[in-house]
Amino acid sequence: MGPDVARMNMVQALNSAMDVMLARDPSVVLMGQDIGYFGGVFRVTDGLQKKYGAHRVIDTPIAEGGIVGAAIGMGVNGLRPVAEIQFADYIYPAYDQVVSELARLRYRSASDFHAPVTIRTPCGGGIRGGQTHSQSPEAVFAHISGVKVVMPSNPYDAKGLLIAAIEDDDPVIFFEPKRVYNGPFDGDPAQPAVSWAGHPLGEVPDGYYSLPIGQAAVARPGSAATIVTYGTMVHVCIAAAEALGVDAEVIDVRSILPLDLETLAASVSRTGRCLVVHEATRYAGFGAELSASIQEACFWHLEAPIMRVAGWDTPYPHAFEWEYFPGKARVMRALRKLLEER
Question: Which residues are known catalytic residues?
């Protein structure tokens, strides 16, 4: 590990990304509930207000529609706001601002106006937060034309993609899977949800770098089947494939919208089998779009029907959190069945 590379978890990597951009670009401002003096409920913005001042790292009221509405106004007037919604579950009061204003601004103005707004928000479960702190609403935002939707799975990607989101001239919804904020894990409920130290932290460059939005990554190469997933589930799927001893390729979607269908289709065309895994509710989840898109691109290469593993079609069950998650055992069962299909 060189002198310009540090070992970071995702919280530290995200903090580093915002630190780099605040120093690099005076038009970048951060805003959100408790992000300044307190440093954010997950400490992602810790120390940034002290370093850059309250005029650039702005504490806001508990008013999600107001946070995003103000960010849109800032973006139209030359700033690059990074708005934090404390939990993805709280983003719905701002949904009208995102759909009716933010996503349409460039189009309705014939490109006379645009709003380079990044909306960061922790998503998913694993902290025993119940129905109001554990949702994964990525499919809802993937349906909106005019925004980009990103969900990293590891510290290196988190920093590079957040920098790219901040620099993007169009709006980006940046979901952060909080179950891997402090390090990856393999889906075993016996492991602490947000402080598992079973894997080394990611090696992340200290300074500036960016990763292209709209490009998937091969998280684990293989040839027997393709597992398409993102966020926390990347680690679960890798662990499942390794525990089963299967040569499965794991594709980390990373960018939900725009989707890198080319990388997904190339893998599935080669392996002939596809398993789609996500944490959110199965019905009308983003896995349905992934399955349909892959089927259209790879129909003549498929040796078995595409399968899905996802959360239950119920409101988030606080008392049965670990049963709701597509854990390692569920992914292993589905992968075994997929490989047996003829």
Answer: 133
